Here is the input.
Amino acid sequence: MKKLSFIFIILAAMMWGVIGIFTRILAVAGLNSIQIVAVRSIFSAVIMCIFIFFKDKSLFKIKLKDIWMFIGTGVLSLTTFNFCYFNAINVLDLSIASVLLYTAPCFVMIMSAFVFKEKITKVKVLAFLIAFTGCALISSLNGEFNLKGVILGLFAGLGYALYSIFARIALEKYNTYTITLYTFITSALSLLPFCDVRGIMIASMDIAVLMWILLLAVISTVLPYILYTEGLKNISATNASIIAFAEPVTATVVGAVLFEEDITFIVCLGMLLVLASIIMISLKKS
Here is the structure.
C-alpha cells in the first residue's frame, strides 16, 4: 500500500505540473488569475458532486462540527496559496516566487511534528534541503528580493503545506472523495466575492474555452487532489510534500516540450537533485 501511495503522490505532482498548459490557454482566452483559480474550484466542485451522486450519495454527508477541516483544506490551503502566489509573482521574479512556494515541505515537517508527532529525522531534513536546492536551480534563482513579495511567497508556501495537514486530519473521519468535494466547495465559495463571475460565465459560453476549463478541472485538479489525499493514508505528510517536488520537474519538462523553453545544465542538475530527494524518501522505511 505504501508503494501504491507513493505512485499516487508522484502522479498527483505530475498532474499539477501540467497545469501551466491550461492556465496559459485560459489567460489568452481572457481570464485573469483569480478567475482561473475560481473556475478551477467551481468546476471541480461540480464534477465531484456529479461523481458522488452516482457513486455513493452517503459521501455527501459531513458533520457540521467538522466543517473546520474543509475550511482548512479549501480556504486556508487551496484559496490562500493560490491568492498569495498569484500576488507574489506580480512583485517578484517568477523563479523566486516558485522557490518560496516550495518552502511548503519545511512547514509540513514542523507542523507534523506537533500535530501528528512525526519525527524530524536527518533523512527528512536532508531530502528537503536537496529538493529545495534542486527547485532553486530549476527556477534559475535570480532577481531582487521584495519584502512584500517574499512575505506573500512564504504565505503561499504555508497555504500549500496546510492541505497535507488538514487532509490528514480529515482522513481519520472521512472518505477521500468527501474531503476532495468539500475542499473545492469551500474554496469556490471563498473566491466568488473576489472575481468577476459574469466574465467567467461569458467565457464559458465558448465551447473551446469550456473544454479547456473542464480539462483543467479534471486533469490538474480533481484527479491529483484525489490521488494525493489517498496517498496521505499510507505516507507521512512530510514525505508526501517532499515527493510532490516532482511537480516543478514536470512543469520544466512541459515547458521545454510544448513551449520551447530552454533547459540548461543548471536546470538539469536541479531536476536530478529533486529526483534524488524523492528516491531518498521512497527508500526510507518509515
Observations:
- Residues 2-283 form one domain.
